[in-house]
Amino acid sequence: MIADPALRRPAAVRVLSIHAGYGCQHAGRCCTSNWPIPIEPSQEARLDALIAHGRITTTSETAAITHIPDGPILLGRDHGQCVFHDTHAAGGCRIQRVAGHEALPLACRQFPRQSVTDPRGVSVTLSHYCPTARALLDAVTGPVTIVDRALAFPTHEEYVGLDATAQLPPLLHPRCLLEWDGWWLIEALAVQLVDALPHSALPRLAVAVEHLHGWRPGTAPLRDVVQRAFDLAAVSGVPDWEPDGASLATHVTDARAAVPPEWQADAERALATRAPALPDAVIGRCLAAHVFANWAAYTGHGLRTWYRSVEAAGSLLRVTNDPGMVDLVLRHLADSSALITRWSRAERSPVIRRP
Ligand code: SF4
């Protein structure tokens, strides 16, 4: 994770066009999900002062702040809600109303952003567990692109997430690194592909991944090979994606296994959701949001792991038809390292037979 505050203000911020207009509408999802909300010591001191002066009160008798021995400092919760959350028309956070956005704990300031920083700058995708982010999937029209000057994501904001700035480029497979330019082109072309052809996005992405698997440094320039792989994937005669029950069950099992015991019941409720079928365009946008700024690409064992993580999102979406529940499980309840360990098993064999 990013520790140096200087790194939180990047030179460039990239987001998907579907998320470019995001702004917190105080839906309160992050305040009412019974999550522990850690608060940093500096913010705690500020909050203590505001409480001591009577400027902020809590909504319950529960302690406003709890110190866990050798652990984090947490805001109080009552009936699953943060004790600073209410239903005020001007926004449901008492801390924010009195002291502004800067006074919030880091976790609250970042939700629903999921960021990864690499030598190019920071890439931010959003969790659709936030109802405001979820609504963008329906409201936005036009092709999904990667944009780098979105007004809602200025470079002077802080973006905390996975820090890959000092890291080598992502792995193509366990014995071969990609090059940064090649990886960034893969990410951009994959966003285009899954958005343009949502029905067959996953088999086409698998074709591109397997074509790339054969690249060796010192042979053809990686960018040329990437372009060819995605050209081939776009015209490949693959069938629409129809995962069988066993494949879906494996993804559900992987997700369940990565969720810590205390969150199992929440994960089961999320995975039991059966919403009405989604329009193709929404499915493509959801997949694009998992292709982009994807931690598995940076911390997994290769492109097959990255593919598997996108397939996991597609599979849970096929089961639930609910992007919010998919992101609740994959982005919030599951332990990301445990998920990536399970997805990395994909490196052992092709994710699709090579054309
Ligand atoms: S501090 Fe404010 S934004 Fe954060 S969980 Fe509590 S009510 Fe919500």
Give a quick precis of the structure.
By secondary structure, this protein is α+β, with helices and mostly antiparallel strands.
What does this entry look like structurally?
Residues 1-7 have low confidence and may be disordered. The chain is built from 14 helices and 11 strands. Helix content is 43%, strand content 10%. It is globular. The two termini are 39 Å apart. Among the domains are: 38-104, no CATH class; 169-348, no CATH class. The longest helix is centred in the last third of the chain and has 18 residues, at 303-320. The strands form 4 sheets. A 5-stranded mixed sheet has the order 8-1-7-6-9, with helices on one face. With 355 residues, it is an alpha+beta fold. It binds iron/sulfur cluster. Residues 30-31, 37, 75, 82, 84-85, 93, 95-96, 104-105, 108 line the site of iron/sulfur cluster.
Determine the fraction of residues in helical runs and give it as a percent range. 40-55%
User: How much beta, percentage-wise?
Assistant: 5-15%
Give the number of helices. 14
Low-confidence regions: 1-7
Number of beta-strand segments: 11
- Bound molecule kinds, no repeats: iron/sulfur cluster
